[in-house]
Design brief:
- By secondary structure, this protein is mainly α.
- It has a domain of 236 residues.
- Helices cover 73% and strands 0% of the residues.
- The chain has 17 helices and no strands.
Amino acid sequence: MHRNWLVCIPFVFVPAVAWGRDVAVVVAAALIITMIASRSVPWRATLSAASNAPWLWTAGAFMVWLTASMTWAPYVPMGTWSKTLLALMIGMLLVVGASKIPNNRLNAIELPIIISIVALLALLAFERLTDGALIRIDRTEDTSVQILNTLSGGLVFLSCLSFPVAWMIYKRWKTSLWPLVFMAAALALSFVYRMDAVPVGLFIAMLSSMAVLRFGKYAFISVVTAMGLLTLSWAPLSVLASDLALDTWLIDHVDRNWGFRLIIWAYVGDAITQHWFIGYGFDSSRVLGAAADLLPERSGTSTFLHPHNGLLQIWLELGLVGVALLATMVVLLTRRILAATPSNSALAATTGALIFYVVIWSLSYGVWQGWWLAVLGLTGATCVAALRINRETANT
């Protein structure tokens, strides 16, 4: 019996993601280790079956192309490369493992997932109300802004998993009240932090989930298609918006950070046209960004380590080949989700998690940050668990 619960141990560390983003990597890696130690997944048979999954072959091809692109990159980022591949492999193992956990053990981890995410929400709320009382024990010299920036990683992690966790709460307690309270608390919390992309992402994800809840798989396909077309159009739209001086308007009337990002996106969009097929090479954004002088007419200049948009970064660094591999993988995963014949509610929860991740991916973090890739793996595995719990519940 102790082996059944061994896999639940990593969830104890989930709330600590609020204080350190890299804890997400620790949680993801620990889950893999405990899955192996507890024998909760028949790994040999699972990996043999997974080897026939087209999306995994596409993911493998993406990683091969990513590695090959270092040969024409402006420098050889071995450290970033090794961390990126490790995080990607951990994420894929989590998703594959979650798809093969036996039913009795799958039900056993449902409650630890719920408790750990609710604890993360409570911790983030406490830290916000007390101006970071606990994190200041270690970060005594940090300003309030620095504290909020640190805690924002935990807020994003919470928001990514909030949709499947809300669905698990609903299935476990057979009431809509507590899932609604949980989601309302997550949304309210997002408004009192500095990262305004989070409430935007939650709002779009909630609308998408409601559409899927009402109209099912056709809404899911429509939402995924619309989001895919929007991300693919980001570069030309950014160039057009910059030509219309929307960046200056945002700086003067909304928030200078959004104006700066639009300038960066337009700059990257122009740069992509020069090496559109194979890109500039893996992790070349930091070299290109360090040389950028984007605001010569203002008091300062804007440089960047990454474009603050996932698809633009992949297109800039890995070219059209990388974008095509990523798009193929998304299509294959979408078909796989639909093949699981989920209920509208389970599909809505999965939609919310994925759409929120894509919104933040389009507005904020760099693609190759290890903690961010670990969040993707943990989110994917939680969605798989939610879809499987849905199916097993329907069969009982």
